Amino acid sequence: MARIILKCPYLKGGEKTSAHLNNLVKYIATRDGVEKMESVHRLWHSTQNQQALIVQILREFPDTKDLFEYEDYCENPNRGNASEFISIALEQNLDQISGREKYLDYIANRPRVEKFDTHGLFTAGNAPLVLSQVAEEVAAHTGNVWTPIISLRREDAARLGYDSARAWKALLSSKAMELAESLKIHPDHLKWYAAFHNESHHPHVHMVCYSTDPREGYLTKQGIRKMKSSLANEIFRQELIPLYGEKTQRREELKEQAAEAMGELICQMKGGVLVSERMEQLLIHLAERLQTVGGKKQYGYLKADLKNVVDEIVDELAKDSRIAEAYRLWWEVRGRIESVYTETPSEPPPLSRCEDFKLIRNRVIQEALNLGSGAMTFEEPVSVETALPDATPDDDTPAVESAPDSTPAEPEDASEPPPAQSFSSGKKAPTSWWTEEYKLAKQHLHGDEAAGIPQDFEKARELFLAEADKENPLALYDLGRMTADGLGCEANADAAYGWYEKALAVFHAAEEEKPWKYTEYRIGKMVAAGLGTEQDYLQAADWLTLSANEKYKYAQYSLGGLYYHGKGVEQNHETAFDLYTRSADQSFPYANFELGKMLRDGIGCEKNSVEADRRFKEAFLGFVFLEEKGHDDKLQYRLGWMLLNSVGTEKDEANAKEYFKKAATVGNPFACYQLAKLILSDETASTPEVEKALGYLRQAVEAENPYAAYFLGKLYEKGQHVAQNTAEAARLYTLSAEQDNDFAAYRLGKLYLGGEGVLKDVEAAIRWLTFAAERKNQFAEYVLGVLYLKGEDVPKDVPKALGYLKRSAGQGNQFAQYRLGKVYLMGEDVQKDIPAALQFLTAAAEQGNQYAQYTLGKLYLMGKDIPRNKESAVRWFTLSAAQGNLYAQFFLDHMDEFKDPSVLLAGTRLLHHMSRVFADNAPPLKPPGQRADRKLLRRLREKKQAQGHARDDHEQTMSL
Q1: Hey, is 865 helix, strand or coil?
Q2: Of the candidates 594, 614, 648, 658, which has an alpha carbon nearest to the alpha carbon of residue 409?
Q3: What residue segments make up the domains of the chain, in order of their start?
Q4: Which pTM value belongs to this model?
Q5: pLDDT, tens digit, 9 for 90 and up, residues 489-511
Q6: Count of CA atoms in the C-beta half-sphere (13 A) of 103
Q7: 829 torsion bin: left (phi>0), alpha (psi -120 to 50), beta (else)
Q8: SS3 assignment, position 11
Q9: What CATH code would you report for 440-666?
Q10: What does the pLDDT look like over 871-924, one tens digit per residue?
Q11: Which of 194, 178, 104 is nearest to 140 (CA)?
């Protein structure tokens, strides 16, 4: 592998080294460049004198082991290789055995130096150099003089074009500014000279560098590393492109190799307890000392003695076997990666001195402050407190998404022939509307397996048109419905309105001829839905009342719906319940279904789960009977929904899927949505099945089903079954939210708030979250409450925050209850209120919130804000621990071992915090670079600005 070697010794200024520097300048500038013939003796084994000298050189100058020549000698210890190693080793350490003048003379005049004139010395620019003047100048310098030596292998130098002095002059001129930065010298003060020695195996360059300001400049190991990296990046520019790819692959391999072991250690830390008597003593000592310290109580502001205490605590923490092993593994991976960039990876410092883990020091200080103040601490995952947008249950699907209420609540034609009615005029009696031709058209519309008639929309439309010519209002109505839904023809809302208008006119004509409960019902239904006329609930209620008073069960049911929702009449659940009961007692399944819901929820009546179940069962049997007669897609959807949710029947997912398939075949958007959900929830579903399900889902979205848009949006947001596409998720959520789906608005607000995959837009997020909160979405109320409480993305507004949190808590949101409990317990944003805190914490705990359970257990155990009650503490800790809460289990295991658990708990919290630190700190992908001096960087920026560069211009630095 191609490499570059750079050595950078220096000579201190003064009279003692003045003559040496003068000679050195002359030597490197005038050395003879004669090419010597290879001697056969060079291939003989090295002599004893050579071997002894090499041993002495290695003892006095250990870093010469890094030279190419030493590698050659070790591989083949002959006289030639021994001679070259001895020569270059002594040459590179002349600064330690002679003076400046001698060194400069040596590098300018030694054999095989490439001369420009009478010597080989060069610097930036084209002005000729006078060797004696340069030598005197360097010899007279009173500051430090650095003497870098840059070496390449012969094959690398020849291949890459660095086998001539002109190539090296161009390279070093272009890198002068970076050289000055590495040496901590202002670019205007840098002076450098060099000479190229064209050795047979390893051509190299000698340099002399110093600052015109004797007080300026120093070089560190990091500076040497940075200097070497800069030169190597330029020399091996083309070859480094594939090499970087190899390094990236190697880094990934190393990370993968360590991931499993590191993950196991992190899990051990997360689930472990740390017990250290020494750490407890140090934490107590630090807590006491910090109480007497003023100013900022952060590591960087503490005095040295307190910093030492913090460091000792961190290093005591590092003695834990889990942390020690994780740190060893972390540094091992870092070192293996670093070895790609450097020959001598750095040794691991103590944990307290590792820059990548310095955050733990302030965490130690915070724990000590908590101990000193006796403040209540909340041991919980970071996500509970900081991952605001995700602090809700994963399954936030709206509870009413699949309720059949979203479809027409009863068959539009009552699914049976109109009741008998005699007419005095000579007109045909309305009972003749239910003709054999009309019945056949209905069979073709829905399909009749028993009669062997397949579903055929075109044939049904043809028969309905024939009946329409006879002014059959039932056929006219069905033509309106088919035209609106695009069955057997193109969907056309205007044309559908025309068919409905004609049907309504015939119903009115029949009613004028003689009042009739059936026509009154049909007119009331059409007026309520705005079919063929303007929608008018008040007028609809009048028509339905006329029919209901005649004990017509369909009218009773429809009028009950108006009273239930308060449309056209004053809302009255008791009246609705009475009307539903009168309709259900006439064996109308839709009324039985509504009665089941009201009895289940105690709306308009006393709760009665037994009677509710009976009504649901009667409804299910009635729906089965009606579906077998008419094969209506809305009935099929209802039956599928009831089977899926075990309402009125046993849960039967397979049978539910069959009903949904039947309804989806004719494009029922609710059935398409439910069928897609069933297929996608099946882990064994094949790829073709998944694709078909996605097709159903998109079909439902096109039919403006808000729940389908919401569900498909979640798939895109999470990348399930489709490629993750947050922008598409946001589009679908918007479609759903615009149809009044508060859950879609809630998730849309979260997307804009998080800004992952979509542009972060706090204003839009607040708008959609408020939209959802106004519709009493408890999750949106919770998120808004936390936002206004934290005051990060929006101005802090504690009253508004408490308002939203209380509204959410009032709907039973355990997260809002827990957050309110913390607020009143801590007393930071509001006045401390222990009774209120207990009320909210208990409400959350009773819903199974493990953090509220843990907090209550801790309160009862500590006995600070409430009377100590060990039995209550054990009960709440037990419930929390059963959900995997490690801190609750910690207290249960150590209940009788100490009076105040705060100190021991602090150590365990630090252990768990370290698990997060390791999880968040993957080993660095490259070794830490040199930290540039801020003052020097400022001067460099000023110089660039003076040359016409913009303040933040990152254009490649030009050579001096």
Answers
A1: coil
A2: 594
A3: 2-230, 274-374, 440-666, 847-899
A4: 0.58
A5: 988 999 999 999 999 999 999 99
A6: 32
A7: alpha
A8: strand
A9: 1.25.40.10
A10: 999 999 999 999 988 788 878 887 776 555 566 566 666 766 666 666 666 554
A11: 104
